[in-house]
Amino acid sequence: MSEFTNVAEIFGSNVFNDAVMQERLPKKVYKELKKTIEEGKELDLATADVIAHEMKEWAIEKGATHYTHWFQPLTGVTAEKHDSFISAPDKNGKVLMSFSGKELIKGEPDASSFPSGGLRATFEARGYTAWDCTSPAFVRQDAAGATLCIPTAFCSYTGEALDQKTPLLRSMEAINTEALRLLRLFGNTTSKKVTPSVGPEQEYFLVDKAKYLQRKDLIYTGRTLFGAMPPKGQELDDHYFGNIRQRIAAFMKEVNEELWKLGVTAKTQHNEVAPAQHELAPIYAECNVAVDHNQIVMKTLKMVACRHGLQCLLHEKPFAGVNGSGKHNNWSITTDDGINLLDPGTTPHENIQFLLVLACILKAVDTHADLLRESAADVGNDHRLGANEAPPAIISIFLGEQLEDVVEQLISTGEATHSLEGGKLMTGVKTLPDLTKDATDRNRTSPFAFTGNKFEFRMVGSKDSIAAPNIVLNTIVAEAFAEASDVLEKADDFEMAVHDLIKKYLTEHQRIIFNGNGYSDAWVEEAERRGLPNIKSMVDAIPALTTDKAIGLFEKFHVFTKAELESRAEIQYETYAKAINIEAKAMIDIASKQIIPAVIKYTKSLADTVNAVTAAGAEASVQSELLAETSGLLSDTKVALQKLIDLDKKSAEVPEGAELAHYFHEEIVPAMAELRAPVDNLEMIVDKEMWPMPSYGDLMFEV
Ligand code: ADP
Ligand code: MG
């Protein structure tokens, strides 16, 4: 780690950012590139050649020997293939370092090894990566030396998206177009571009690396598959915001420095609810940059942890019985001239505009709750959603008392004349409360909460990319904006039409608003009465991707084609089945080779003791009782293990796709729970010296 005097000095030092481009590129080239970045103008090859050359020179100064097209295939993690800058040696055996515009703009990794759903069967395996110049290139320094990373989108030969980036960029275009259309109706002629802003809060666990290496379940699956609760869990709430231990503090310091160098605005850090759990949040950024940065954050956490003899666990549920990890996706919509459409503001026009935007979002989320739920579905998140530690699997919106009151007034009378706090704000036609000053109580149990000038989508899993939720948010809100504009553009009396529309949307979609306790059973019942979907698992969430409603939505805004949606659904099913299969196999392995042998040893030592004590003429009732109990649990374990083995074998006969995923969900997952139960009981009985792996207590409290 290099020493530095202040943050400003290192911030962005490894990023080919605007300042660097302005400094290094010829004026004309810089202007051309800016046009591409800001207006989407196509870049010609001659310009790209100049940019590539300067980028290479800059990267080499930073020590880079290689470049990579950095992309986000549908594996959930990033992918990269490294090429060095060297060209073929000349006749004197000398090499030059070269990098052409073509190499910058386009790459050609073999697409056949990445998940493509049905697309692989229908189309050629050929795939291309294309430079996303709206997200800056950067030099990453690690054990491999320094590498120039070029953010790219990844598409098939026929243009189908094989990644997260392509649809994300398409969704940003959709919301840009439709938000501008709406803004023009309100008389805004100055804003040129509207971009979603995103700030993801990242939760994670840190455990000691040496202990981690003794847990095959963590190594293979990222979570513990066995483990009895330690005497202390999180009940005292003493970890949340607690004092950060020195070892962890040193880790965080280095994470921050690495992130700052890469231009990631690491801002907030604290201990989270569970022991050994922490959180990191950057300052929000443009949606696609935020998505890239979140991948960089996850990678950096892992990398730096290794240097500190730690292991970073990003899994949604590393430990049963204590809180898991998630990601809060803070989302708002901002114009290029600094107007946040979700800021209630202080001027009358903006307030009406804000209410319409709000009404559109309520409509969008209510109409497409199933899609939003699906966007947060991943294998690990099944352990959290609805388990009283994270939002329920039911989508609802928290507005806060004050805003909800305004909405109620608008619905019942068509006018909002007062706010609960009594503060009034003239809108010209109606009065509205100053919402920014009167932040109502927070509600941690809501999956989708309005927090002053943004919405916070709290369902996302800690390991998952935030691309999917943002694709959905951008597109569904674009649709609601488009539908509002369709009505308003035809209206004779705009003022009247806006108010009618706000009232209509609020009335039709008020069922999505819920300010109460989202963890309560009463809410589950109430939501059912309201007809809100309660989609409990990943496998049940996947069909939302391919409904006529979803296809209509995504095709209308050119975000996904039907084929792309079908391929994504297929990949989700595949991912689920594979992940659970790995977990089941890891459990079988650990139970057979580690746990049962350890327990057998323990029973032998008990039996020896019983014999020895009895032979010595004393009573060995305690030892005998323990032996009986242990033997009983051992036989329960063996029975459950055999059942899991048999069921897992049978999975080979189940057709792939939805059916197989359901088989794993409905047959294998319960069988895994059945195996875990006796093993966790055994862990409470068996001599700690003999237990074959570190306990929950060792992992969580001895970091
Ligand atoms: P908390 O929810 O823990 O109180 P903060 O209010 O500090 O956290 O914000 C959490 C995240 O939300 C941060 O990443 C922050 O940058 C981001 N954020 C703040 N304002 C906005 C906004 N207008 N749009 C999107 N994200 C935002
Ligand atoms: Mg938050």
UniProtKB/TrEMBL annotation:
Transmembrane residues, as ranges? none
Q: SMART domains, from UniProt?
A: Gln-synt_C (SM01230)
Instruction: Outline the extent of the GS catalytic domain.
Output: 164-595
Quote one Gene Ontology molecular function term: glutamine synthetase activity
Q: Which residue range or ranges hold the GS beta-grasp domain?
A: 65-159
Annotated GO biological processes are: glutamine biosynthetic process
The record's annotation in InterPro entries points to: Gln-synt_C (IPR040577), Gln_synt_N (IPR008147), Gln_synth/guanido_kin_cat_dom (IPR014746), Gln_synth_cat_dom (IPR008146), Gln_synth_gly_rich_site (IPR027303), GS_Type-3 (IPR052725), GSIII_N (IPR022147)
Family note: Belongs to the glutamine synthetase family.
Name it: Glutamine synthetase III
Give the source species. Answer: Anaerosacchariphilus hominis
| Top-level taxonomy | Bacteria, Bacillati, Bacillota, Clostridia, Lachnospirales
